[in-house]
Amino acid sequence: MSYPDINTQPAAMTAVELVSAYAAGTLSPVEATEAILEAIAARDGAVNAYCLVDPDRALVQAKDSEARWNSGYARGLLDGVPISIKDIFLTEGWPTRRGSTSVDPRGPWQVDSPVVARLREDGMVFLGKTTTPEIAWKAVTDSPLTGITRNPADPATTSGGSSGGSAAAVAAGMGPVSVGTDGGGSIRIPAAFCGIVGFKPTHGRVPLYPASPFGPLAHAGPMTRTVEDAALLMDILSLPDPRDPTALPPTVTTFRGQMSREVRGLTVAYSPTLGYAEVDPEVAAVVDAAVRRLAAAELRVITTDPGFADPRDAFEVLWAAGAATMLAKFPDGTREQMDQGLRAVWERGESISAVDYLDARDVAARLGIAMGAFHTTYDVLITPTMPITAFEAGHDVPPGSGLASWPQWTPFTYPFNMTQQPAISIPAGTTAAGLPVGLQIVGPRHSDDLVLAIARYAEHVLAS
Question: Whole-angstrom Cα distance, residue 33 to residue 363?
Answer without folding.
Answer: 47
